[in-house]
Amino acid sequence: MGRRDRGCHGGTPGRVTEHPLDLARLQRKLAEFAAARNWQPYHTPKNLVAALSVEASELVEIFQWLTPEESARVMDDPGTAHRVADEVADVLAYLLQFCEALGIDPLAALAAKIDRNEQRFPAPGAQGGPERPQLPEG
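Given the sequence above, the corresponding structure tokens read:
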């Protein structure tokens, strides 16, 4: 799976590069990290989803008082870009551990959700689609 290089990584914005890690390998690395520290008893679905919420809130905090224009340029500042990347990593780590704990394939879940959203929210101008764009509810 590729990733987009942005300012803090020294790459060209929007360029996709191949990444040596896939989701299954990342989940294994996270499980090995937790096992080496005997953290498995604490990695219950309830605790993992709570930690996910906390980390997502820490990501929101970075953007809380920024204007839309400032938020679009957040990766231009190396210090802020590093904080954003760290919080994204924390959110993804807890999400992957949560999925592992419940036996959810995150990519399959996302693909199914996209399919459902395409049915629920047809593109404007498409057969049966609205004249104006609709915002998803979640």
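The CA atoms of residues 55 and 91 lie 6 Å apart. Try to locate this feature in the token string yourself.
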